[in-house]
Design goal:
This protein is mainly beta and about 100 residues long. It is about 5% helix and about 40% strand.
Length: about 100
């Protein structure tokens, strides 16, 4: 039996501020450190999409998970602390990732 209980109704992490990554070129970006109480990130991708890796490798057109512009995602904060992001080069638009820190 799983003894870790997750509240499905997360709340903002007290004292944590949201983070924004903006992409206008082919620079790989990462989030800065998250609050120690943050468990989950609510992420919105706007404008164009981005490529993401979570294994420490650099995201490329052949090595990525695609996050689509106009979509929202929930991710574990430990996973996202390792994530690297690159703007999808097929987009004519710049891309933005807005991340809100949540706890349970």
């Amino acid at each position: 039996m799983n003894t870790y209980v997750v509240n499905r109704y997360n709340v903002p992490t007290p004292g944590a501020t949201s983070q924004l990554l903006s992409f206008t070129d082919a620079t790989v970006r990462q989030f800065t450190a998250f609050d120690k109480n943050t468990k989950v990130l609510f992420i919105s991708v706007t404008n164009g999409g981005v490529y993401m890796t979570i294994d420490g490798s650099q995201p490329t057109t052949n090595n990525n998970h695609k996050l689509y512009g106009g979509s929202n995602y929930y991710f574990n904060s430990d996973l996202m602390s390792q994530a690297k992001f690159l703007r999808d080069p097929n987009n004519a638009n710049s891309a933005r990732i807005y991340a809100s820190e949540l706890t349970n």
